[in-house]
Backbone:
């Protein structure tokens, strides 16, 4: 801007005619190439979207494995008619989704089966679905 102002006042400082319009500035270039107003789009997914997609099923399966373990453990004491099958189903789903907590899923499966076995013994001994600690 200062060169065109200087050129208009002196007439010949930048070698242009004082009455001619100023030339358009050249586009800025960088070492990577010419600048552009368009956003640059990458073909690779961002790091956060890759980690979310790849870890999400694993985290869900891990949560199912832990839940099956906890339900199987609690089912040994109370409501084993409901918690035993729930623990078995969650453990099977976690194993099918290839959880990182395979041992916990297998323990949840074993505890769920143990819940049903204990329920079967108590039902045959008491003759009813309900049971208590007092006998």
Residues:
């Amino acid at each position: 801007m200062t060169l065109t102002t200087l050129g208009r006042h002196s007439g010949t400082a930048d070698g242009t005619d004082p009455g001619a319009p100023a030339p358009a500035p050249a586009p800025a270039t960088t070492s990577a190439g010419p600048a552009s107003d368009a956003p640059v789009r990458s073909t690779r997914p961002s790091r956060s979207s890759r980690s979310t997609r790849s870890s999400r099923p694993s985290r869900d399966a891990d949560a199912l494995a832990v839940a099956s373990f906890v339900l199987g453990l609690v089912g040994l004491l109370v409501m084993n008619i409901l918690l035993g099958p729930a623990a078995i189903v969650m453990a099977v789903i976690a194993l099918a989704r290839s959880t990182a907590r395979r041992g916990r899923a297998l323990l949840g499966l074993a505890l769920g089966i143990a819940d049903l076995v204990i329920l079967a013994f108590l039902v045959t001994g008491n003759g009813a679905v309900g049971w208590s600690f007092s006998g």
Observations:
- Residues 48 and 54 are 10 Å apart (CA to CA).
- Strands lie at 29-30, 33-34.
